[in-house]
Amino acid sequence: MTTSAPRDGAPLLTVASAAVGWAGRPVVREISFTLRPGETLGIVGPNGAGKSTLLRALLGLAEPIAGRIDRSPAWRAGHVPQRDALEPLFRFRAREVVEMFARIGAASGAAARAAACESIDAVGIGSAADRTFRDLSGGQKQRVLIARALSVRPTVLVLDEPTTGMDVRAEAELLALVRTIRAERGLAVLLVTHSLHLVADEADAVGILHDGKATFGPPAAVLTSESLGRIYGCPVETARVGSHQLIRAMPGQESARGSAT
What we know:
The chain is of the alpha/beta class. It is 34% helix and 26% strand. A 6-stranded mixed beta sheet has the order 5-6-7-3-8-9, sandwiched between helices. The protein has a 3-stranded antiparallel beta sheet with strand order 2-1-4, with helices on one face.
């Protein structure tokens, strides 16, 4: 399976001084970043910070209130939505879930079936392809949704809370799969999540949303104890263990220390 990602590393997405929101009212301002082929960008922030609002605008489902969101001609998004929002609707076999999406832009039903089969094989879910989607495990469902996204031959893989509800092994296996897909196909990855450790380990750059603003930069510069403590309203401890960044919130620590002095 091939993609049309630009070979010169030109940005697939450029966001310049953008503001996004609803009914003309901004939710997040001062958004500026670029996303190039092969890069992973993580977007994090507390509940209600505007992650979903920003994602809608990046996908072209809403216009920015101010500034620019420019998608290159090579931009083609394969969107993996939050799994919990889809499970009640998908009373189909896993293969059918992928094939329905593959029909977007496919020249024929045969082409859609071929793209679906190729994508299912790419994520290693072939043995479960004829099972009902809702009967699969959480990890299997997420692989089906990634296959669904890959079936449109994207240049950008958009993951919205991809590891919610997964155990440690399923999460590690899914992340390894995403890394392999990114490396083999030169895809950009846009990762929207609550999980700070996930973006600390996986992302080349991070955007953190808070108090109506967005801060973008390398994970080590953005995900500091000081900045996270301000944003989440409690002490946050960060530590490097091998290749992994550990991030732990410690609510109540400030009050406990204050009462002891």
